[in-house]
Amino acid sequence: MAAYEFITLWRFTAPLPSVWDVIHDAISWPRWWKAVESVVELDPGDEKGLGALHRYTWRGVLPYRLRFDMKTTLVEEPVRLEGEASGDLVGTGRWRLSEEGSDTVVRYDWRVETSKRWMRALTPVARPLFAWNHDVVMRWGREGLSGRLRTGAPDR
Prior knowledge:
- It is a single chain.
- The protein is globular and about 45 Å long.
- It is built from three helices and seven strands.
- By secondary structure, it is α+β, with helices and mostly antiparallel strands.
- Strand 3 and strand 4 (about 65-75) form a beta hairpin.
- It has a seven-stranded antiparallel β-sheet.
């Protein structure tokens, strides 16, 4: 499989609990994150969401979709949220939130391998395109979350 490691940093002038609430509510992501076509809850997990299982369908600028399940493996409200992905992508995602003055800093670590045969075959030449596509998807996430925090309502 072709391995990818991405680190994304976002900064919002918003209270950490507000940012946490929006990120933790994965079901609402399609309403504000342009790249998220759907999120289906397969298992709610416990009262904090530990053990929750969601099926995501994502699309970016490039003409393909990625579908994968994400099982929540760690919930430390309101600062850490981690999960294991399986499906078109296999690996781990880790959200970390912290405060710097009146800002909330969000760090997302995404370490995955693609299980799609065509993506693995193209990785030697298309890796920069796949990384660019990921960066666009994450920029859309920052923009959507920023809008949601400003208005308190979904952007779309």
